Amino acid sequence: SALHSxxxxxxxxxxxxxxxxxxxxxxxxxHLSLCAFExxxxxxxxxxxxGMPAVVSCAPGPLFATGGAHKKKPRQQQQGQPRIRLKGxxxxxxxxxxxxxxxxxxxxxDDRWNLQSASVVCRELGFGSAKEALTGARMGQGTxxxxxxxxxxxxxxxxxxxxxxxxxxxxxxxxxxxxxxRCNVPYMGYEDLIRLAGGRTVSxxxxxxKRGNKWGTVCSDGxxxxxxxxxxxxxxxxxxxxxxxxxxxxxxxxVTEMVLSGVKCEGHEMSLSHCQHHGTSLSCKNTGTRFAAxxxxxxxxxxxLLHAPLVQETAYIxxxxxxxxxxxxxxxxxxxxxxxxxxxxxxxxxxxFSSQIHNNGRADFRPKAGRHSWVWHECH
Length: 380
Known about the structure:
Elements: H1 5-13, E1 20-24, E2 36-39, H2 75-78, E3 84-87, E4 94-101, E5 104-108, H3 115-124, E6 130-134, E7 146-148, E8 180-183, E9 194-197, E10 204-211, E11 214-218, H4 225-235, E12 239-244, E13 258-260, E14 294-298, E15 304-306, H5 308-314, E16 316-321, H6 326-330, E17 347-352, E18 357-359
Parallel strand pairs: 5-7, 11-13
Antiparallel strand pairs: 1-2, 3-4, 4-5, 4-8, 6-8, 9-10, 10-11, 10-14, 12-14, 15-18, 16-17
Family: Belongs to the lysyl oxidase family.
Cofactor: Cu cation
Main location: secreted
């Protein structure tokens, strides 16, 4: 037929080397090797006499669509249906599985967690099938509720919420059992359009991007952690430890010209080209080498999360005498109107509360400032 004639022309022009024939899948397999098939014998005279080379056409998920950063949110988000996300992974397509239920994000217990269920998650997010179904909080422990347990997908479902599951409480499963996935990620070639130069290790350096056939640096005006996170993700180097705006201390022997400015990312983009930028026009306060944008990337990072319910539970109002607030005033912990108060008489009304901060990441939290520059508060 006319539909198949281009494919037959390609088949005739190539020397074909068949490996498999009579492949029969049920649709639930996570890999082609798990389907029923027959190997082609080396001495076969006509290994595919009744057919032709198999051809597939794959559609990229929303994350991989060109200009995906500027497209509308997925339909499931617009309609307020249950959503799903991956957290804690260093690379695209991996992380702890979290689902949205009753306006609260929660995790999935790893009881009976397998590749079929993991593949449903991966496909729902726009990736391929799952490479690994991870158990035992391998991508870090979550916080809050645990929404699902004993998820048993067949592999053909379009959403994890369509699979048989058990609703549980944290009493039945702990966050040390949070399920995670590693997905097969479509190759889009984004990592071929970015590189690092001048750094002391392979995980740091000035960011250089390819524009057309030309490589060049990126203006550091407005270069923040969000842009650095996208750059590290595009490079396949994990998280951003530091967004560098002055790179004078790195090797400048092979410096290229600046080719990109005005980069502003939301943080979830797959490539710097998906972020807002000035396009072909260049507008940068300082185009010198020392002001090129740079990054320091890491496979692991801390992820600090405030325990908001504790703040709400412990908050109260206290009227505190001024003579007990001298130290707080010296450290600028009071509002500016306190300067005009009748010291040491009178009082100030304070909002008091307890707080806890959890580290959900896979690395220790280390402040950017060294201990030598810390300011110690002795009266709190």
